[in-house]
């Protein structure tokens, strides 16, 4: 996981939806515009109250809250991601694989803590492969440490520690995560290859080493491709 606080810069108003060209230019206004664009789909007139924040908490809870049918919806704090309207607003080109270096429950607690400025879209539990969705895929989770890659990816956190693969990288974890990644790739048209399913360590500029050298990429990609 990784912080993205620097991308989160509230600003008073952006009355119009930004054009794609404006979004691609980047800059400090980008996140704010993205946040308002996302919020404006759900509410009108109140978006400026909390620019840049997700509005997911205002929506009804239930099975429709998840993008992946097998996931349990355990929402992150709306302070820890950028509301958006993907893939219209940004293409979704990558799945980024992470390892938490935290326990599953502690990871969820971190994502629910509005002071942490970090999130992913999914968290997979080691012991049984249980999948939690914490941020909707249309929104930009803060996991890659790279704004461009955050906007263009779905992030999956895996419970465990990179130097204890035998203990944490279980069959259940690989199997459940591969099914999830296959579903994400299918829904977004992401090619099932290592150019598009990448480790956090492979994000340009990444200073994180997860999922680490013991993550079995050959096994994982075979499992994803089998779906
Ligand atoms: Zn990571």
UniProtKB/TrEMBL annotation:
Classification via InterPro entries: Amidase/PGRP_sf, Amidase_domain, NAMLAA_amidase_2, TAT_signal
Record keywords, A-Z: Cell wall biogenesis/degradation, Hydrolase
GO-annotated biological processes: cell wall organization; peptidoglycan catabolic process; peptidoglycan turnover
Record-listed E.C. numbers: 3.5.1.28
GO terms for MF: N-acetylmuramoyl-L-alanine amidase activity
Catalytic activity: Hydrolyzes the link between N-acetylmuramoyl residues and L-amino acid residues in certain cell-wall glycopeptides
Source organism, top-level taxon: Bacteria
Signal peptide: none
Record Gene3D superfamilies: Peptidoglycan recognition protein-like
Protein name, as recorded: N-acetylmuramoyl-L-alanine amidase
